[in-house]
Amino acid sequence: MTAFDGDETARQWPRDSRMECGICWTVYDPAVGDDVWQIPAGTAFADLPEDWRCPTCDAPRSKFMLLGTGDGGGRG
Ligand SMILES: [Zn+2]
């Protein structure tokens, strides 16, 4: 659709968005951070280092998908 994709897409998501690895379903939660990469709690997915990868399966950031806004859900 547009000339850019990948990381640029993440910038429009809410900073508290949780992201799920499309390979192993590991969830990155900004409220928790990432012990493996020594990412402090409160770090948005969009603010992760460019070379950040899934701590479980080493998938690149581009493999992660938006999991939801954490509003409780119930419908779907
Ligand atoms: Zn993974």
TrEMBL record:
Listed InterPro entries: Rubredoxin-like_dom (IPR024934), Rubredoxin_dom (IPR024935), Rubredoxin_ET (IPR050526), Rubredoxin_Fe_BS (IPR018527)
Gene Ontology BP terms: alkane catabolic process
Residue intervals of the Rubredoxin-like domain: 16-67
Pfam name, any one: Rubredoxin
Record-linked CDD domains: rubredoxin
Top-rank taxon, per record: Bacteria
Alphabetically ordered keywords of this record: Electron transport, Iron, Metal-binding, Transport
Keyword Transport in annotation: yes
Gene Ontology MF term list: electron transfer activity; iron ion binding
Cofactor(s), names only, from the UniProt record: Fe(3+)
PROSITE patterns: RUBREDOXIN, RUBREDOXIN_LIKE
Family according to the record: Belongs to the rubredoxin family.
PANTHER family: RUBREDOXIN, RUBREDOXIN-1-RELATED
Protein name: Rubredoxin
